[in-house]
Each structure stands twice: as C-alpha cells, then as structure tokens.
Fold this sequence. Notes:
By secondary structure, this protein is an alpha/beta fold. The protein has helices at about 15-25, 30-40, 45-55, 60-75, 90-100, 115-130, 140-155, 155-165, 175-190; strands at about 5, 25-30, 80-85, 110-115, 165-170. The radius of gyration is 16 Å and the shape is globular. The model has no long low-confidence stretch (mean pLDDT about 90). The structure holds adenosine-5'-diphosphate.
Amino acid sequence: MNIILFGAPGAGKGTQANFLINKFGLLQISTGDILRDSVKQKTELGKQVETIMANGELVPDEIIFSLITDRLNDKDIKNDFIFDGFPRNLKQAQKLDEIMNEINIHLDFVFHIDVEEEILTSRIQNRAKQEKITRKDDTSEVLIERLKVYNRETKPVLDYYLNKNILTVIDGMGTIDEVSSDIFMTIKKDFKVD
Length: 194
Ligand code: ADP
C-alpha cells in the first residue's frame, strides 16, 4: 500500500504518518526529515538547502528528485511507502508518477488532512513556544511564508489527485484519534485490514 499524506504546515502529517507506520509497517519517506538531517550533518546538500529551508521556501525540484529516486531505488521492498511532505508542487507530482511507473508501483491513497488556516497558525505558534529546541522555520514570520508557499505551490497538487480519483479529504480538526480513525476507515473500505 502506497500513501501520500498531504497537508499544510501544522496539519498533523507527522503524527498521522506515525500512526500509519505503526499500524501498517509502511516505510516513511519524509523529504523534510531527510533535508533537516542533511543540514544537521552539515553535508554538501545540507549547506545548499539550509537558508532556503530557514526562509520557508521550497528546495529546488532537482534536489528533491534525486533524494526521492535514491530512496526508492535503495530499498529492496518496492511497496508500502508513505510520502510525507512530497510532492509539494505539480512538477513533483508528475515526477513521482514517472518514478513509480518505472519501478512498477502505484499510489493507493492521497489523504489531505484539512485544517483551517487560523488553527494552523495557532498550532505552530504553540509548538514553537513549547519546544526547547525549536525548528528554525517554526517562527511566526517563516510560518506565514510557509503557508503562502503552501497555498501557492502545493495546494494545486490537490486538484491533480482529485482528477485521478485518489484524493480523500480528512477533517483534520478533530482529535488525533479521530483523524487516525477517519484515515483507517477509508483504508478499510479498499483493503482487508483490522
Ligand atoms: P512542514 O512542517 O511544513 O510540513 P516539512 O518538514 O515537510 O515541513 O519541510 C520543511 C522544509 O523543507 C520546507 O519548508 C521546505 O523548505 C523543505 N522541503 C521539504 N520537502 C520539500 C519538497 N518536497 N520540495 C521542496 N522543499 C521541500
């Protein structure tokens, strides 16, 4: 089973990704995590992307494509992926289709975890306050930029998947368990799981 988790910054993608990983043993491919890791390790890639990420902008597609291709070719298991934070624009969505075609796997679900913008803003601001080590891109100014980038670049990807008939909108404003359960119920309709 291959899934894309889609949602604005603060929508709860990470939390639901963990739920799906634990429940179904999916392999998570989070471009944000991979990039943050390379910044921490101060690799060549990390140096290239640090400022872009700190400003809340998107990292160039070519960098993302090579990350994704590496990850997908790296694994013996060619199925059961969860994409989190990718694709983030139409080009990336088209590229993902190409790569998946090449290795002969397909997408089963695209979940849009839908949360009102006001709620997103307050969630991220709380997160920034509570965590001792805050992410550099979790300040309110950068958050506003990230939301703008999301609305401009990433939201149009939803129509792409809507047209392919694999988009499920999940109300992301309930509790964590409610959101997980909505996702689970959708999966259950197509897969024999419990
Ligand atoms: P969020 O909490 O907004 O979902 P992520 O952890 O997915 O954030 O990503 C953090 C940052 O990493 C983004 O703001 C962007 O700079 C960069 N990034 C992550 N994934 C991608 C991608 N697929 N394309 C371009 N940039 C990306």
